[in-house]
Design a protein that fits this description.
Number of strands: 3
Distance between the termini: 90 Å
Structural class: mainly alpha
Radius of gyration: 25 Å
Strand content: under 5%
Helix content: 55-70%
Largest sheet: 3 strands, mixed
Length: 398
């Protein structure tokens, strides 16, 4: 049992221990300095390249190694905790100011703590991730010309993707009704070898990757229209496991591309498709060719409709079924169906508002980080895909 004297001493020791004011000032000012420094230097490609190679890559790799210890998504845990803390902090601020005098002082202190915390998170994120957007990209480092493509080249590459998708669609695991049934765990387990072949051609993709994480909030990802997210502050590749499984491999490859330092979304999509089609894993190859085919066909339809019809008619039933299922799945995520009209209308409106808000925020984030096309950049990898296949003689234009 602690006597009164000991309790008084404990209180005295705790209260009498104070950090020097200069330390508090440093703690508050440091994240602002780091953030301002980033915005000042981000116009220098050389400085951002140095940061991406010497600061971002090793720290993200270390964080990825630490987070790989846990089988769950550490990002989801931290984000959930952050939301709970924010709600509690706001509630605590309201209750504290309602009972005490000096309300302005209390609010000021609490707002300062919140602002400093947010600045630390944003400052770290800027140097660990945003810096890569302003450094030379994958295409520039690997000598892609970016000259664009002709309609004949586009048609030729689309034909190759259609042919390979047709061939592989019958080789992946399916049930008696032709539905895709590849084991999800097996798709995740294959991740260490996906970049083995492509890293021979592109040595800057030769790096350590960590097991992708299944997301607990996959339903929310689907509602907002996203298939995965790489989180630089934990180094994790997080995957929406509710998405159509035949495209899950290319999503895994996309998020692993971010782990390997491919920052731009269009380049990560390109790298993911090429990694998949060269992986020598049938499920991954099929996902790569199917994803590429979808995007190639969308582009081809706008410039050569007759060839689009011809290729579309050549697709086997399995490819058409998977393509249609993918379309139906994402359409289904745009509405809520509980069987109660009023409830469905309200929840659908809420769902659409949340999805649109997420798109607006993320689009603005990409544009503010030198990604001029914003969300559209996800689909702008076709030029790279066509150039890759044409220059390597994997097909020839007619």
């Amino acid at each position: 049992m602690v006597n009164t004297k000991e309790r008084k001493w404990a209180r005295f020791s705790f209260r009498s221990f104070k950090l020097p004011r200069s330390v508090y000032i440093t703690i508050c000012v440091l994240p602002a300095v780091l953030t301002i420094l980033f915005y000042v230097l981000r116009s220098s490609s050389a400085a951002m390249e140095w940061a991406a190679v010497n600061v971002s890559a090793p720290i993200r790799g270390f964080l990825g190694m630490l987070s790989s210890i846990y089988p769950f998504s550490l990002m989801e845990v931290l984000c959930t905790a952050a939301v709970i803390w924010l709600i509690y902090y706001i509630f605590k601020t309201i209750t504290s100011t309602s009972r005490r005098s000096g309300k302005l002082k209390i609010i000021s202190k609490r707002l300062l703590v919140m602002a400093v915390t947010i600045l630390y998170v944003w400052g770290l994120f800027c140097w660990l991730w945003n810096s890569g957007y302003f450094a030379p990209g994958f295409a520039e480092k690997n000598g892609f010309s970016g000259k664009g493509m002709t309609t004949d080249e586009l048609a030729a590459v689309t034909g190759v993707f259609a042919e390979k998708a047709n061939e592989l669609a019958t080789l992946v695991e399916r049930d008696d009704y032709g539905r895709y049934i590849e084991d999800r765990r097996g798709l995740f387990d294959a991740y260490p070898d996906i970049y083995r072949n492509i890293s021979v051609e592109f040595p800057n993709l030769d790096g350590r990757v960590f097991r992708p994480k299944s997301m607990m909030f996959s339903w929310l990802m689907s509602r907002t229209g996203y298939t995965g997210v790489y989180f630089a502050l934990t180094g994790e590749a997080n995957i929406n496991i509710n998405m159509p499984e035949f495209l899950l491999p290319v999503t895994v490859a996309h998020e692993l591309a971010h782990q390997l330092g491919v920052f731009a979304e269009d380049e990560a999509n390109f790298v993911a498709v090429i990694a998949c089609v060269t992986s020598e894993n049938i499920a991954y190859e099929y996902a790569g060719y199917l994803m590429g085919l979808m995007r190639l066909m969308g582009t081809l339809a706008g410039v050569d409709y007759e060839t689009w019809v011809e290729i579309s008619d050549s697709l086997v039933d399995e490819v058409k079924r998977d393509w249609q299922y993918n379309y139906d799945y994402w359409q289904s995520q745009r509405t809520v169906d509980t069987g109660i009209t009023f409830v469905d209308t309200v929840l659908t409106a809420v769902s659409e508002t949340v999805s649109d808000s997420v798109d607006i925020v993320y689009d603005s984030f990409l544009r503010s980080n030198d990604q001029e096309l914003g969300l559209r950049s996800y689909g702008e990898y076709i030029d790279l895909l066509v150039e890759y296949f044409i220059t390597r003689g994997l097909t020839e234009p007619e």
